[in-house]
Amino acid sequence: MASSRTLGTFRLPPLPTIREIIKLFRLQAVKQLSQNFLLDLRLTGGLSVFPRRLPRVPGGVGSRGFRADPAGGRRGSGTKVCGGHKIVRKAGNLTNAYVYEVGPGPGGITRSILNAGVAELLVVEKDSRFIPGLQMLSDAAPGKLRIVHGDVLTFKVERAFPESLKRQWEDDPPNVHIIGNLPFSVSTPLIIKWLENVSQRNGPFAYGRTRMMLTFQKEVAERLTATTGSKQRSRLSIMAQYLCDVQHILTIPGQAFVPKPEVDSGVVHFTPLTRPRIEQPFKLVEKVVQNAFQFRRKYCHRGLGMLFPEARRLESTGKLLELADVDPTLRPTQLTVSHFKSLCDVYRKMCDEDPHLFAYNFREELRQKSKKEDDKQSCRL
Ligand code: SAM
C-alpha cells in the first residue's frame, strides 16, 4: 500500500486495453444514454495489453496474464505506449492531487489520471455495467481509486475528500480537480449547477477554487469561451466568464470516440476567480442574462425590457439602461461582462425598491393576458 502511494512515480501495471475491457465486460455503448467512449490512447494515455488470444508480442506478460501492447492499444498505428496523456495533461500538474472524475465509463481517462501521480481518484459512474471494469483498475492501483456507483447530479463531493485540503477562497486553488467526459445532455445542466456552486462557494467549491476540466459538444465549448461580439456569444459565455477564468483547451474530433458522435467535442478548463466579475446573487445575474439574450438578433433593450411588467416596460427599461450606462442599440452579443455588471447592479437596486419586481415573469403575464382574452370570448358566445 505504502509503495503504491509513492507520489508522482505510480504507474499502472499492464492491463487490457479499453477496447478489450469493453469486449470483456460487454460494455456496448447505449445510444439513448449518449455513451461515446474515448479509445484513442494518444488522447487518454495509459498502458495497455493484449488478451491471450491476440498475437504474442515480445516484451512481458502483465500481472493478469495479459501481454504488453507496444502500440498503446492502437495496433499497427505506431503510437507509443503511454503516448500523450493529452487530455489529462491539460488539467495541469496532478501530482499528489485529489481528483473527482465524473462518468468514467470503461476508464480511458481514469487510467491517465491514475498514471499522473494523483494521491486519490474518486470516480462516480451511474451505469452499473462499468463497475467491474473500474474495479479491475482499482485492484491495479491499490488505495488510489475509489468507485462510487451513483449520479453526479446528486453526489455530494464536498464530503468526499479530507477537510485538510480546504483552502481560503482567495488562496491558490486547492489540490482538488474535477475531470469528466459526460454525455452532453448531462454536462450542460451540470456546469450551470456547478457555476451556481462557485458563486455560493459550496458543493465542489467548499474546498476553495476547485479547478474543473469538462468535455462539451464543441459548439457549447465555443459558447462557454466566446468573447464579446463573437457569433457564439451567449448566456453561457456570461454565466461562465463572470465567475471563472474559462479556456477552451482542446478540440477532440468525433472519430476519437466509439461510437463516433455526430459532433466534435471541446474540452474546457475552468478556474474560479478570486472575485467574481459581477457581485450579485447567481439567480439575479441569470435572470438579467437570460432576458438580455431572449432576442439575440435584436437590440439589447428588447430582451432586457422583458424584465419589467408591460405597463411600465418602456420607462423601466429606459431607466435601467441609462443608469447602467449601456447603449440600448447594442446587440446582446456585443455586451461585455462589465456591461452586465452594471445592468445587474442597477436591476438589483430596482428590485430592492420594488419587492415584486424580481418575481415578475413576462411569460406568466402573457399567459394571464391570453387567459383573460379566452374568458372574454367565451362570455360573448
Ligand atoms: N469518460 C468515459 C470516456 O471518455 O470514455 C465515458 C464517456 S461517456 C460519454 C459518459 C459516461 O458518463 C458513461 O459512462 C455514462 O454511463 C456516465 N454517466 C452519464 N450520466 C451520468 C450521471 N448522471 N452520473 C454519473 N455518470 C453518468
TrEMBL record:
Keyword field: DNA-binding, Methyltransferase, Mitochondrion, RNA-binding, rRNA processing, S-adenosyl-L-methionine, Transcription, Transcription regulation, Transferase, Transit peptide
One Gene Ontology term, aspect cellular component: mitochondrial matrix
Please give the biological process terms from Gene Ontology that the record holds.
Answer: transcription initiation at mitochondrial promoter
A Pfam cross-reference name? RrnaAD
What GO molecular functions are on record for this protein?
DNA binding; mitochondrial transcription factor activity; RNA binding; rRNA (adenine-N6,N6-)-dimethyltransferase activity; S-adenosyl-L-methionine binding
Gene3D superfamilies to which the protein is assigned, alphabetical:
Ribosomal RNA adenine dimethylase-like, domain 2, Vaccinia Virus protein VP39
Q: Where in the cell is it found?
A: Mitochondrion
Does the record's keyword annotation contain Hydrolase? no
Specify the protein name.
rRNA adenine N(6)-methyltransferase
**E.C. numbers:** 2.1.1.-
Specify whether Transmembrane is a keyword of the entry. Answer: no
Which residues hold S-adenosyl-L-methionine? N36, L38, G103, E125, D151, N181
Q: Which family does it belong to?
A: Belongs to the class I-like SAM-binding methyltransferase superfamily. rRNA adenine N(6)-methyltransferase family. KsgA subfamily.
What organism is listed for this UniProt entry? Bos mutus (wild yak)
Broad EC category: transferase
Q: Where is the Ribosomal RNA adenine methylase transferase N-terminal domain?
A: 85-274
